[in-house]
């Protein structure tokens, strides 16, 4: 319950902390103001939000809810692989107290309502074999969650994209507060209340796979050929928006506890200074 009501968290974009402006007014103008004006009620600072604690000062002032996300996977020197067969570094146990210590200084902010202890460090598919490597990864993440709960027992934790808990019995562990999936099929959430008996969220859903994940390369190629990407952009974004609308309706009808559409426009607009050669 939040303010006496059952909450439904939604936002327009998961802000990548590595792209986050350092100045507090940039954060307010680029992120928080836009979300509030669109009647969104929470921001997730993606992969390393706790590196920018001043953002919580702004959120406190504005009444914007925040999910701070750690950079745990980078701390243990994982070279970016999300598959669970990648060996868990022995540094994992040593990285947990470092991660918690960096987050501890932010726990007194009223805008902070959820700790995202990591991003996609435990990704498996629904029918994957539960190997020893899968269990090792899950147990490491449970240790991480437990350390955060010991540091701050007042807030829930979530493993963003942690399908390792959705598709194993580890979801029954009391250190798992919220089950979260990234880009999963709506069918996965059928009967989730009875199946999990815990809040379930969609931490990332983009504007359709073909648009969201290939558009940067397509625009770059068009620019290199001397073609104007603007007409293509608007056709693509309109088609993707229709796709997204259907997906959002599906997840909302399943009564999930929250949705966080990921990088809906910020990365893919051809007029933003993101790629070389784009004015």
Instruction: Return the average pLDDT rounded to an integer.
Output: 75
- Evaluate the radius of gyration: 19 Å
Q: In terms of structural class, how would the helical and strand content be classed?
A: alpha/beta
Low-confidence stretches: 1-21, 78-89, 263-279
**How many separate helices?**
9
CATH C-level category: Alpha Beta
Q: Per CATH, which architecture? A: Alpha-Beta Barrel
How many separate structural domains?
Answer: 1
Strand content: 5-15%
Helix proportion: 25-40%
Q: Largest beta sheet: what is the strand line-up? A: 2-3-4-5-6
| Helix-strand sequence | EEHEHEHHEHEHEHEHHE
Major sheet summary line: 5 strands, parallel
Any idea of the CATH topology?
A: TIM Barrel
Q: N- to C-terminal separation?
A: 46 Å
Q: Total strand count, please?
A: 9
Shape annotation: globular
Briefly summarize what is shown:
39% of the residues lie in helices and 14% in strands. By secondary structure, the chain is α/β, with parallel strands linked by helices.
Could you explain how this protein is built, in words?
- The structure is a single chain.
- The chain has 279 residues and is an alpha/beta fold.
- It has one domain (9-207): Glycosidases (TIM Barrel, Alpha-Beta Barrel), CATH 3.20.20.
- 39% of the residues lie in helices and 14% in strands.
- It contains nine helices and nine strands.
- The protein has helices spanning 24-37, 54-62, 72-75, 92-104, 132-151, 163-166, 192-196, 209-224, 230-253; strands spanning 9-10, 15-16, 42-46, 65-69, 112-119, 157-160, 179-182, 200-205, 258-261.
- It has a five-stranded parallel β-sheet with strand order 2-3-4-5-6. Strands 1-9-8-7 form a four-stranded parallel β-sheet.
- Helix 1 runs parallel beside helix 2, helix 4 runs parallel beside helix 5 and helix 8 (209-224) runs antiparallel to helix 9 (230-253).
- The N and C termini lie far apart (46 Å).
